[in-house]
Design brief:
This protein has a two-stranded antiparallel ribbon. It has a two-stranded antiparallel ribbon with strand order 3-4. The chain is built from eleven helices and four strands; from the N terminus they run H-E-E-H-H-H-H-H-H-H-H-H-E-E-H. The protein starts with a helix and ends with a helix. The longest helix has 26 residues, at about 160-185. By secondary structure, it is mainly alpha-helical. The radius of gyration is 20 Å and the shape is globular.
Amino acid sequence: MINFIYLTSFFLVIFLCRVDATAIPLTVTNKTEAYAVTFPDIDPVALHLGPLVIRWYALAYVAGIVAGWAWAARVVRQHRDQWPQQYVRLNVDDLVTYVILGIILGGRLGYVLFYNLPYYIENPADIPAVWHGGMSFHGGAIGVMAAFAIYCWRHSLSFLRVGDVVAFSVPFGLFFGRIANFINGELYGRVTTHPWGMIFPNGGPDPRHPSQLYEAVLEGPLLLAILIMFARTSYFRRYPGMLGALFLMGYAVFRFCIEFVREPDAQLGFLWAVGTSGATMGQLLCLVMFALGAGIAIWTKIRHDRYPA
């Protein structure tokens, strides 16, 4: 528990130093303003404590981690009797410390490698500068899997079963993180003529899809509801890793679809043409993620049908 508190505090301090201390004033001159939903002018800074500022972005990460940690502890308590050989040595407080490190290191390195590698090759000193922004979910997912794989190896636990617990907790962080993206006015969608389009401070004069809110709903409560329903089936109890596989595939499908209305990263644009638009790096990574989830599902079913525990 103490390690969890220390690492959470460290993670918060990292984001206290982000440079976007104030919200950008909203100025609109385009005639489409009358048909757009007003973007809420929320200060990215939630609280000032003397020289320090606490930002909504930092609080979102902390809230997601704490909520996921509490949910994971609840899941373990509920299923400890069903799988005593898997959970008797599982300490959720210790596991969370590994997960936090995986989020930080994997998320940052994923952004560097997947989204802006040429820049960081020329400016390697900027790689640790998390306070300038730049975290990749797909990189964070890789980091988290590597982190709890190390935890499982050290404690002789089932990687697949512990992966089910971790996957059950991730939607909380996704929900809060996307809400924070919306408050910051970042990762907005493409230009739209729909009446719910918003004019974002950094998105030009045209209304855009509030894609952060789409992602918050799909990747947060909806994905969690799907996982809860699946966890009540015999597949979750019989096949370790099935819940984690479902999470990977579910997130990949939702994110792939949202990418059609989300503005691609400026430094990458579209990777290749698809009709009148194009495919993005996020969609490419989602294809890999879906294939990984499908592979895990197929492998664990074949393995446990052939060698039942």
